[in-house]
Amino acid sequence: MALVLFDIGGSYVAVSSDADKIYLMLGWEISDFTDNDGAYSYMVISSKGLHILRYLQSNLEIHKFEHHCHILDTTVTSSQQALDYMRLLIGHTELCYPIVNHYAAIEEVGFIREVRLSSIIINAQTVSVCIDNGELVELVKNHEWNFSHIGLTLLSNLSDIIQEQVLFMVDLIQVKAQTLKKQRVQNTSLYELFVHKKHSSPHDTMVFIKVENQYITFDDDAIKISSLINNVLLYECNVFGLRGRTVALLSILHFNTAKKDNNCIVIESPIDIPLYMIGLKESFLNKKCNAEIVFSDVVVRKQKGGDYIISANYNGINLPETPIMTTIGGYYHNLPMCEEKKAILFSLVHHTYDHLICNCISENL
After folding, report:
1. How far apart are CA 335 and CA 338, in angstroms?
2. Given a cut of 60, is residue 69 above it in pLDDT?
3. Greater pLDDT, 116 or 72
4. pLDDT attached to residue 71
5. DSSP conformation letters of 114-150
């Protein structure tokens, strides 16, 4: 039996048993309405949802609905369809898509928890959201959607991001190499603008580039400002060359705070691009460390095989050598002595050994 959709101009509607079939097949959220004859279920289908149905359902009928109607789409359903569309395109690869400046309020028992949406991880089987740059929440596995309170909250909060950024996300799936190269070229031009202004300014002046209604700065200026102002996060930036990879992102409020006690120069971005196209990925430098633990003799070494290890001493005890990511180890080794290099070493040693030291202290209490 054919699956029937009604074309209402720009989107489509499945009604009653047809809406129920799609729900059972794909798990997309269903809505309902009532009239004098009773209650009916329905589902609004976007163009991306239609693409999926055509791929999965060979027997599909579409009828033009001639009468004017206003049917409210749900943010959850549209988010599900867009995510499933990208899962269909992605094949055997995976997209880890960074998110900047988006927060969600999640009701817990007795309190409301505000979380930061850090990235969306999409592959053919699952979609997950990374919150607070560490915790993964799975939104869907195959066609089993997470309709818990946190799952629905995250899906709803993703709707604005997806609506605005889906075309760029699709480009990262379909033409990844070209899209990343274009991103790297534009980001490098922003960094070169920063460097040029930095070299022509007094040593203690911090340089910022305004992108949309946010401010970005690079290298040691980024490290400095993140240490001076609470809640200023550090990001990794896709650029050509060695420097320019560490970026701090400031809101207007953060920037106004910064310029009260610091010499600051602002340059308007000459490139008219939305912030999300810069592709800022949350840095591991944001992860919290136990600053009360003090290490000595901290060394990052490259082994013969090309891997990197870190070693350190705590209270006269040599801690076990531990592998670190090659990309981070290589970047650290190539940096000149600077505040960024010090921050990376501090973060690496604490992320590697804090848990070990805390466990030892707890066992000895």
Report:
1. 8
2. no
3. 116
4. 60
5. EEEEEEEEE-SSEEEEEETTTEEEEEEETTEE--SHH
Give percent of the chain above pLDDT 90. 79
Please tell me the pTM assigned to this model: 0.89
Cβ–Cβ < 8 Å for 43, 6: no
* Spacing of C-alpha 260 from chain mean position: 31
Return the minimum-mean-pLDDT range out of 8-12, 149-153, 267-271, 346-350.
8-12
* Local confidence band at 183 (pLDDT 50, 70, 90 cut-offs): very high
* Angle formed at CA 64 by CA 60 and CA 68, multiple of 5 degrees: 140
Instruction: Measure the CA–CA gap between 23 and 44, rounded to whole angstroms.
Output: 11
Q: Which class for 70: exposed (0-12), middle (13-18), buried (19 or more C-beta within 10 A)?
A: exposed
> Residue length, the chain?
365
Per-residue buried b or exposed e for 262-300, using 16+ beta carbons within 10 Å of the residue's own CB: eebbeeebeeeeebbbbbbbbbbbbeeeeeebebeebeb
Cβ proximity of 131 and 119 under 8 Å: no
For residues 283 and 234, the answer to whether their CB atoms sit within 8 Å is yes
Cα angle value 282/231/335 (rounded, 5°): 50
Nearest to 285 by CA among 333, 334, 237: 237
Mean pLDDT comparison of 63-67, 217-221, 360-364, highest-scoring range: 217-221
Inter-residue contact 51 to 60 (CB < 8 Å): no
Whether 299 and 251 have beta carbons less than 8 Å apart is answered as no
Specify which residues 150 forms β-bridges with.
Answer: none
